[in-house]
Write a structure and sequence with these properties.
Number of strands: 4
Strand order of the largest sheet: 3-2-1-4
Order of helices and strands: HEHEHEE
Shape: globular
Distance between the termini: 39 Å
Amino acid sequence: MMARQEWSAETYSRDAGFVAELGAGVVEWLSPVSGEKVLDLGCGSGALTREIAQKGVTVVGVDSAPDFVRATTELGLEAHLADAHYLSFDREFDAVFSNASLHWDVRAEQGGCRRGSGS
């Protein structure tokens, strides 16, 4: 079994801040529209979560790292500590955004993402 990765928001922002900078283009692809509700899956330190919120979107961050959730909430944003495999949300988001988190999922080969039917 693989050891659990420990994340530090401060270290991540300092050493990997380029990830959020490069991810700004992904936010543009999302094309968030004011009034929408977006789930930021793997919100990290909240840099892109904040950028999405600045578009007038209600955004909810989720991350499995307690320090990332703390950092995101300190930005005044809603964030929850959760494993992406066990989310309790049910059709409450217009979109799911994920910039740099899915590749960390060591269980990815066990399943996949599904697109909602919209109904």
